[in-house]
Structure formats: C-alpha cells, structure tokens
Amino acid sequence: MKIPIFPLPVYLLPGGITQLRIFEQRYLNMVKNANETHGFVIAYVLDNARMSKWGSWVDIIDFDSDEEGLLNITVKCQRLVSISATTKQADKLLFGTVTPMEHWQESADRRDCHFLQQQLKWLFNEYDALQQLYPTCYFERADWVCARWLELLPVKFEDKSFFARRDSFHMAVAFLNALLGSESQVSR
Asked: Are strands 71-88 and 40-45 parallel, antiparallel or unpaired?
C-alpha cells in the first residue's frame, strides 16, 4: 500500500499518541487527505538525508488550530510498518510503499514490570500534559507501559530502534529496568 510519509524525529510505538503542529502546505494537504490515504506514516529522521526503514502508521484522533492559525493534530500509532520504495510528488510530499510489521503481542505479563508500571503511573499523575494526551491508560498491560517509557525517555533512536522488532519485548523490559533502576536496585 502507498501512503504519505512524514519524516520527523518522533519515536512512536503502537498505542502511542503525540501532537504535531502542521504548517507546510504539503503536510496540510496530507492531513486534509488523510481519510483517503488511510492516515500517514511518521518515519524517524536519522539525519538530513536519511530516514528509518520503518515507521509509525498513525490516525488523526483530534485537531484544532492555535492562536497563530497553525493546525495542531493529535495522532495515535495504529501499527508499525516497514517502508520500501519512496517517491516524491510535485509538492515534495513523500509517499512510500508500506508493509505492516508485527510488534509485541498485547501483554498483561507483569513479570519484571511492576516497578516500571508504578513509575509510569507516578509520572502520569505528576504531569497534566500526559494525562491530557492519554485520556485512557493501560497501566495493567506491560507492553503498553514499556512502549510509553521507550517513547518518553531521551535515548538515541539508534538504541531504541531495536525495540520495534516483534521479538524484543523481554529485552525492552530488561533495558528499561536497567536504565530506570528496578525495585531490587532501589531497595538496596
């Protein structure tokens, strides 16, 4: 399937939500046509000339304009996709052939995730912006908790990119526990 690609330095996993400010005409057109193109893909910009080979296929879940007249949209990642052949339209909007990728299975497996779940709940309670972005939270789901941590933490894309693989969930849990310090490390 060919759909628009929006190159941005945004790391988003399934279920992830982010807000974007749209001002370039090509991206305003992309948003306007999002129903016809089945949304769009956010592909991480690695540098000025390259972008990741996978992206986050998003749907627009809300929109408004700000005081400056810029369009603000809220998008939610439905799934990850691999990106192959890309082409540019006359307005320089990038289109890519995308193929859905499998990601982590929905998981209520809480082994080794209790500390991560507690800390994410605390973070969401402390920051109104997160509560507004995520009106519904799934703290009981370890996969949802780990995905939100990976999106929020200031870790290089090259280091986080590995966790887009479908078999990387348990490695993500270990990575996050090591990075954030698990309960057993905190209690020492």
From this structure: unpaired
DSSP-assigned letter for residue 112:
T
DSSP letter string over 53-78? Answer: EEEEEEEEEEEEE-TTS-EEEEEEEE
pLDDT of 54 higher than 60? yes
What is the rounded CA–CA span in Å between residue 1 and residue 140?
Answer: 34
End-to-end CA distance of the chain: 52
Mean of the pLDDT values across residues 107-123? 85
Residue of 156, 2, 151 whose CA lies nearest to 86: 2
pLDDT of residue 18: 97
The pTM of this model reads 0.90
Closest of 26, 34, 28 to residue 3, by C-alpha = 34
| pLDDT at residue 152 in the model | 97
